[in-house]
Specification:
The chain is an all-alpha fold and 98 residues long. It folds into 2 domains: 32 residues, no CATH class; 37 residues.
Length: 98
C-alpha cells in the first residue's frame, strides 16, 4: 500500500532529538516508529502502554519519626541483602543516559 498520509507534530526539540538518537541506535526511522506506534494503537484498541501517574515519593520533611525510621530500616535491609549500588556507579549511569 502506498504511503500518502502525513502527520505533523509539534514537540519539545530536546524530546525529539533524544528519541531520534535512540531510534537511530536501534536502526529505526522516526516515520517507521510512528507507524509502528499507530499500528499498536489499532491492535490494542488504545494506547499500547499504561498511562498512570507515578507513585509519589515520600515527603521526608513531613514524615513522622516512626515513618522515617521505617524507611531507614527498609534501606538498611536493602544493604543487608545486597540491593545496593555504589553512588559513583549510579552517577556514572545517570550521566551516560544524558
Amino acid at each position: 500500500m502506498a504511503k500518502s498520509a502525513n502527520v505533523n507534530v509539534r514537540m519539545v526539540p530536546e524530546v525529539k532529538n533524544e528519541a531520534e538518537a535512540i531510534l537511530k541506535e536501534i536502526g529505526l526511522a522516526p516515520s517507521a516508529a510512528i507507524e509502528l506506534f499507530y499500528r499498536q494503537i489499532i491492535l490494542k484498541r488504545g494506547l499500547p502502554f499504561s498511562v498512570v501517574l507515578p507513585e509519589p515519593s515520600p515527603d521526608v520533611e513531613n514524615l513522622s519519626k516512626e515513618a522515617l525510621l521505617d524507611l531507614l530500616r527498609e534501606g538498611i535491609g536493602d544493604l543487608d541483602v545486597g540491593r545496593s549500588e555504589e553512588a559513583s556507579a549510579v552517577f556514572a549511569r545517570l550521566l551516560d543516559q544524558r
